[in-house]
Design a protein that fits this description.
This is Helix-turn-helix transcriptional regulator. Helices cover 56% and strands 10% of the residues. The chain contains 7 helices and 3 strands, in the order H-H-E-H-H-E-E-H-H-H. It has a 3-stranded antiparallel β-sheet. It is elongated. It starts with 8 loop residues before the first helix and ends in a 9-residue tail after the last helix.
Amino acid sequence: MKRSATGCSVEEAMRLLGGRWRLLLVSYLLDGPKRFNDLRRDVPGISQRMLTLDLRALEQVGLVQRTVFAEVPVKVEYQLTEDGQRLIPVVEVMRDFGLWLKSRPEPAPETAQVEAEQVETMDRLADRPGKFSML
């Protein structure tokens, strides 16, 4: 596995779990083994190709185990490995953070527009475009 040049542990984790789907796939696998089509149904918006690539990547780094059963038709299941289960606290924190985000009131859209206009006015008055910026 390629290591980060900086040696940053967060960067290492993000290399494995970054992207739109990987941590979400891990969260669905916390419930136990799932078949490919179950995951595809559970994760709305993921394409078959992306699901295949992300499951393969998670398998390559040892977070997911792929088991093929000798049946007709062939049955394939994906489940978290012991290393993959170490992500349980991460998923729980992400879930709690998502619930917190959903519960807080959204800022009024006109507030953001007024702030943007104020910054433009301050830049113009200072005759220095870009001197003031919004965070």
